[in-house]
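Researcher: We're teaching a course module on how sequence relates to structure. For the next exercise, students receive a sequence and then see the predicted structure as tokens, so they can try to spot secondary structure elements on their own. Here is the exercise chain.
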Amino acid sequence: MTQLANAQNNPYQNPRKCRSPGSRPFVFAVAAALILSVGCARRLGHNVEDIEYISSGALNGHVVVLDGYDVYSAAPGDPPSSQSLERQFDLRGTGVTWGPRGVAHISDEDVFVFNNPREIDELLLTDAQGNPRPAIEITYLGDTPYHTEGLAYVPEGEPRFGGKLLLAAIWFGEAMTTRILVIDRDGVVSDEIALEPPYDENWIGAVEYLPGGELLISQGGDALHRFDLDGNLLAGPTLVEGPGSIEGVAVTEAGYVVAAGYYGGKLPVLGPALEPVDEATLHHDLGEGVSFPLGLTYRPDQDAFVMQHVSLDGFGFVAVEKELGAVQPQFVLDSDVTNLSSLAWIPGDKLFAVLRVGAGELWMVDAAGTVVEKLDLSLYGPLREIDYIPSWDQFVLVSAAEDEQTALHFLDRAGRSVGRMDLGGGEIESILSLAVAETPFGPTFVVADAPEFSTTMAAFDSRGDRLWSRDYREAFNVMHPDSLTAFREGMFTGLAAADSGSSEIVLFHPLMD
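Model: And here is the predicted structure for the students to work with:
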């Protein structure tokens, strides 16, 4: 079997593919055949999660924006004037396992702190250039939260919590509960701030400390609230026009506020009383407005990738040229976004198979977005991935049910089981994503393991025998392959991976027929 050398770490070498703006070509070698194969990646949209104003150190006076794995910055002045952000560094190689949700700057040490959503007990640290520093291990007071979001730092000398970090934490149960954790520099949670009802049951997207002992908080919408350090509401809601879902707020030394929404674009500037400041906007333009791709498939008749995504305009499907160039809207599907995850193209019928994970259904959708058939797959438990095998005219399904997370279920076109193949017992512990690659020797099944278990990508033949396996981060420059799809390119079978945490599509050629 053809073996691959590891990807070179420099993603900007040999730009022979993905010539579109914003792509980052990289190189790896197919060593046995002495063939140089080029992969590339392109961000199609934003994943803005937090924003911070830096008041000391190497980036003094900068506003820093966390967007996917990348950190952007601008020095807009104080009061801020209109500026465009530029990429400062990225977090690949720091130990991050998915797109961080919060950033804070410890001014006394000139280091950045990021949370790590797949490692809930850890905070990552870097210097101002993005070089890793020793991580902080969190010791919680009680139950470990399900998820964490915004981060803030309380400077030394403040009347309460000086020198401590503030972290928005979320628990799910019969009702969602949220608290702000107060974390010592050594990682011990020394206190908690519970917001007064009903705010303690609302999502917290952004948290920022205001000098003198107040908090500025967004609860996932387009409004800001002010609370004291005991969680009592002081003012709000104050509506902010422009960013949509506010994920981060930064406060300058003069008291001006910059708000950032998940979908990037324009970051409005507010005065100290949260009044809009005319003609003062930070510009953060990136990609084509395609954020958080939820599924990925390849249409040979269009030579394009089709994916689901979310945006300020709602939920829709888009097609992206195979060279990761032009992006074209396809249709909008009337469905709860949380029910959609995986997508497959049925070329003979020109239909999309859309897996609705929350409802346990598989929808057949035509190219205009009309649902023409619904299959009940609830007997397979919680659903995770679907693909279509053209040569067999069958679906292959991955379930998230316990003891089924390494199995492939084969279904006929009516959704009836016709076989099962377990890929467990080796390197694969929980299949995150799946692609069917048709070869002259029959279908090959490429799976990526969930990164909380391993970062293994492996290919199996139709008997379940392993053909190859690689570390997808080291070999293919893919951080978190939420979705996979295969495509043909001459003698090669190519793969494309979508990383929802960075709204990024990555192309590579690991297979050779």
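Model: If you want an answer key for the exercise: The longest strand covers residues 35-43. The first helix runs from residue 472 to 476.
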